[in-house]
Every structure is written in structure tokens, then in C-alpha cells.
Amino acid sequence: MRDFHTHSNYSDGTFLSRMVRAAEEAGLDGIGVTDHCTVSSREYTKDIRAARGFNLDVTYERRRRAIESLREDADVDIYDAVEMDYDPRDEAEIRHFFERADFDYTIGSVHDIAEMNVQVPSNFENMSDDELDGIVDRYFETLSALVESELFDIAAHPDLIERTPGLRGRATDDHYRRLARTFASSRTVPEINAGRALTDAGIVHPAERFFTILQEYDVPFTVGSDSHSPEQLRRRRDFFDDHLETLDIEPIAPPGFQD
Predict the structure, then answer these.
(1) CB 3.0–4.6 Å: which of 19, 43, 145, 205 could bond 193 by disulfide?
(2) Model pTM above 0.85
(3) Is the distance from CB of 39 to CB of 31 less than 8 angstroms?
(4) Tens of pLDDT along 53-78?
């Protein structure tokens, strides 16, 4: 069992050393440290980056030094990776940064549509049904562009909008099938993400209907707990033991990744 999606204090998670120790205690064979990162010259993105404090493009070499130090004594493989915010307008800057940083693998995420975080319910409270459907359309269009860009090994939580009451349930089979075809023709793979699996909502990405359609197109999956703390990592590791058995699949490593 390897967890390819976790966060440390280099973005919005717990101290890196504590996350690695938790991975050892959980009996993982490998942990991917995939801190959030944003690279963009757009003003909105600069403001968001300042507010969230996602500065891995500045600190990745410092984090790499910490990872290399921890590898000397760790009983778990540690992977030096990234979760990058994606917008089609930022592709050139993302590509340039990836060429420079040379991570073990890369995760791409769509968090913002129309300059609104899709995980914040209040952003959508006063919208009409047509407006909400438009946000969902744009979300899937952007996620398709992410996959088609071939910049990423993994697409994170590929139906993130299911976390948000105003957007939940608005995705259609047409959305899912178009995206599944895009995955099927790309090296980028979706992940099974447990970031909300143990909440009251009990959400696993991709949701069951989307997961079934992806399987129809023989799309493989990686596994990511999306943990931000040691306790989350331990509990979600136990969740995956049971959940993957019910799915009867064999997760893969990120495409092109060599450990």
C-alpha cells in the first residue's frame, strides 16, 4: 500500500517529519508528499496564493533537502511530488516550473472556477440552477483540459464538486463519459481520493457512478488519502484496506514514476 497524495507543513499540512512517522506507523510502503502549489502571473491567483500561503515554487528545494534527510532513517519510501492548481491559462508557467523542479511525479487539481473555490458552499448560494449547471460544465471542461495537457501524472479528486451542496449531483453521465474518454487517451490517471471519506458526507472520489463509467473505459487509478495530519493518514489507510477490497481493483503507481 502506497499513499500518493498527502500534505505537509510546506503547504497546509502537519510537519513533514510527523507525516512520515505516521506513514511508518500505518505500515505504508510509500508516502507521496504532494504539497499544494500555484504558479501564475494572474492577479486573482496571486491574491489566492498570498491568502493560502502556497509557496512550494519557492520552498521546494528546502523541502527536498528535508525529504532527503528523512530518507536516511525512514522505514517508508518518501516521494518528492506536488499538487499543482491548474488553469489552462497557466500551462506555460506550470510546464516551465516542472522542468526546473523535476519532481518524482505531479498531481494536477482544479479548485477554482470563475474565480471561486468550488469547495466553498457560500460561493453558490444565490445562483440559479442554470448558473450552477454552468459552473459544473466549466469544471469538467477545465478538468478535461488538465488531462489533455499531459502535464500531470495524476488528476486529483476528479469530481471535487461533489463536496459542495449547491453543486453536488449536477454532474451528468455525459460529463462523466466525456471525461472518461479523455482519461482513456491520456497518460494522466485519476486517483481514488479519501479526503472526505470519513466525514458525515462519506464522499469518496470518484463517486460510484463516475467510478463505474471510468471502469467501462478501462481507466486505471492511483490511491491518495489527501491527508493533512498524521491521524487522518492512519485512519484513511485503514479505510483504504476495506474500500479497495470492495472495488476489486489493483491501483497503479503514477505513470512514468520510478521509485
Answers:
(1) 205
(2) yes
(3) no
(4) 889 999 999 999 999 999 999 999 99
